[in-house]
Amino acid sequence: MLKNTPSLDLVEFIETRILPQYAQFDKAHSLEHVTRVIRSSLELAKSTGANINMVYTIAAYHDIGMSGPRAIHHITGGKIMASDARLKRWFSTEQIKIMREAIEDHRASASHAPRSIYGKIVAEADRDLSPEIVFRRTVQFGLANYPELDEEHHWQRFKEHMNQKYSTNGYIRLWIHGSQNEKNLQQLRNIIADTKQLKEQFDYYFKQEYDDKQ
Q: The whole model's pTM is what?
């Protein structure tokens, strides 16, 4: 019988030693985000037969590399996880190798498919494509990382990001067929194709997030 919940001692370690580190990252890579990715990863794992402790740990470490440059956070995160000797209590050398590769492969702009089901799970879980989540996180990231921009330039950055990543010609790829993300991505693309509607979404979330920062 497959175990469908992570080991309690592993959960205690992750929740006390790893997850608190996310408090130092921007709102788009916050504790709320990693908690959602963990929850989604565990849900996706149910139908795959994947090792639940591995899935849980990969999700918990997936953005830990945000402590360094964002552009290589997936590589940095894999190194941090693989070098954490405390994990040897729960995992073999081979399992840690697979977990490192999964973290390295989770980034949406990766040029290759994830090398294992573990990479596919965390990559899919990391892509909550509910339009409201995507729009809010994009605005949050812009405000946190480009504070010098005025509202018009934030809009231009937002629109460019939407087209480059989520549009019909965007670089995002989904790896688990039939997921809720497929339906959400189509909704996103319909909004992106209508610039007026996309601007309305930007205005709504920008006002909320900008006011919160004041």
A: 0.77
